[in-house]
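hey so i finally got around to running both of the ones u sent me last week. sorry it took forever, my laptop kept dying halfway thru and i had to restart like 3 times lol. anyway pasting them below in the order u listed, first the sequence line then the structure token line for each. didnt double check formatting much so if smth looks off just lmk and ill redo it

first one:
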Amino acid sequence: MATLRNLRSKSTILQQLRNYCSSPSSILTGDSKTILTSKEKTRAALSLLKSETNPEKIIDICRAAALTPESRLDRIAFSVSISKLAKSNYYEGIRVFLEELKNRPDLRNERFVSHSIVLYGQAGMSQNAITTFEQMEQMGIRRTVKSFNSLLFSCILAKKYDEVKRIFTDFPTMYKIEPDIDSYNTVIKAFCEAGESISGYSIIAEMDRKRCKPNATTFANLIAGFYKEEKFDDVGKVLKSMEEHGMKPGLSMYNVRIESLCKLGRSFEAKALLDGMLERDMKPNTKTYTSLIHGFCKEGKFEDAKNLFKNMVNRGCKPNSDCYFTLIYFLCQGGDYETALQISKQSIEKNWVPNFTTMKSLVEGLVTVSKVDEAKELVGLVKEKFPKHADLWKETEEKLSN
């Protein structure tokens, strides 16, 4: 009976996917006459996907946009769609949709198959990813290290770390594939995410035997793993090994170390690394400062976070939206509504507006410190940027008027 119900479920999904929409272009434009370029189709799709929750409609939006992995925007749309479908437990729909795409003439190539393997991993469907890889020859598509690396990565996304080890050990011989630097780095990342960073040493030893020179990513993955496990002696050993391989820590390595320390609640140690960078005339970037600001905020050290933000701007390093949003959110949590207001205005000027929950918290906080006029002005600014969401502010505005 269970099998029969399962078959009926699959049949229903297939029928829904085939018949849901008779006019794909109207999904994106609202009419069937407007002609869009491929980029305009993707932008329209992404806009619709933000609020869509119906699984069939999500798939129809993707189908109407004729997405391909060639474009970065299209890859984002694919990722957003698969995440939403997986959240709805629409796994059979994901499988049917991706299998359908493989029959499109423009997608019968290794690049799309590799991307579909990653999407299966993102959905937690690692077995489907493995099956897709195994069936490539039947599809007339040659396997290379590119699709092999996609399979390893998909298993990391699905958190199937044992599968990463098995595939890395067995598949190169089975399918006559020579692992490359990305293969080794992905396996090291898998060990580190599984809490087995120590196994990364054996991978580096194998790389040396195969004359595959480690790169910055190799050591960065390993160091992030040892920090996560709080094995600080091993961090030092990896840094020494890095030097022995003729490499010096660059900005990316400092950023990994700073972010790792901040995650452990050791932001002052991370700040010492920043000071060391500046002494060496090494220029930090936005990621460096954002990690530190987030770290200090999480530890409740708001003055340090604000000072870092000022120093960042004074040094000519431009904050990104994440940096603004992080600081505004935590300043509201800490009750510093006036500073949060100043920073939110700077952010809004750049067309970066924090989410509704954060802005509502700021508006209500301003009222508690007798800044009602400022609160009203802020609501007006946000409504001007997002007129479609004006109704969300109705209750708040009524309270401000009383």
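and the second one:
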Amino acid sequence: MRKTNCKKQRTMERREIKRGWSEGSEMINLENEEKSSAKQPKLSERVMVKIDEDDDFEDLTSECSKRPDSDEGSETMNLKNEEETSANQPKPEGFNENFDLVDPPISDNWKYVNWQKCASSLWVVTKSPYSCDWIKDVLKSEIFNEYKSDEKTETFKIDGDWKFRKSVSSCSCVVFCFESDGWDTESSREVDDLSSYYGLKNVIILLSEKTPDSCPPRQMNGRHNFPVLNFSKQQIAWYKDNLKLYNMKIEKMKTILKGSASWTGHKVGIFSRSSESEYEWLKMELESEYFRGSVENVQSYYISNRGFQQFMTNVSNCTFGILYHTKNRGRINITDVTDSLYDEELDYMSLMMNKNVIVVVDDLNDGNDEEKSRILSSQPSIKEKALDLFLFTTEEKKLLEPLVKMRNSINGEPKGTIK
């Protein structure tokens, strides 16, 4: 009789526990809330679960959300109940017994703007009150092939919406923007946790200096080793004032190439007496998505004093030629002047390619229209034998380097930097 009463009592206790779980575990949590609140999350809060990549995330979080807070007495009771029922109730598929509960890595003060280009989607995520408005003009530029956005800022948070999770995890790239003094170990941990939660594959950390004399922080990579790009206040100011001019040059170059290209695009050859490292930035630009359809491939060819026969062979392999010269060699002496470097080469390229040639002069102090007119006035053969002359400054290359790195990371293009 006594044994029967004990059994009935245990049955009633189990029913009470289950009823407490279904109603938010109030019967257990009310007594132990003060003891457990410092150690465990409340049932009303979302929790994160540290799992392996192959774990079933949804089953695991739902299993975790059913577990109530408890003190030592209720824990003992739960352990006994689990032992009695474990044989009859299989664990969820992908269940990991060694999981840890962590705080949600992102809250309502995070914002995002979605940018679209064809089928690809790019998310720019910021932490209030930093707005990162300057990046809008950058993404609209030819460097990024004109991303489109309604620029509607929305809250980005963990909300258990699996369709939402699938949407962000399928993005081609997510760019997290911080001011340099707002990036620390905690920020690094938050980005790591968020990328794990949503399964983000391509993440970039973008840091902008708050003041001209602030020092960019060291690259604090977490377990995912995401690239960190630093932008100075000078660079951001330059983008606002001069990026449009650079875009105009690149757009004009594309127009020239596209206007004379066949349906497969041009086989472009860059010819120079300088090393390839000097014009690596130009080659990367021509190989970018922006020139896709206008350029089939790009090859580099060195011009030597004793290799004109090889030069002629190289020209025959191209449908469009770029004659590259850098002022780092001393002065602008392309043709028609004393000690000019490319008289014969420019003449031959123009003849064999039906004038499908442009001249690029690099590393100038000033690349405005006045400088261009001065060069064409003293070296008229450039205008006669080439379609156009393009001038680029050292400052342009230096300030655009982080943007090129950013574009390569977003588009999955070959790595490289502007020298």
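quick thing i noticed on the 2nd:
Residues 233-260 form the longest helix (28 residues).
anyway thats it, ttyl
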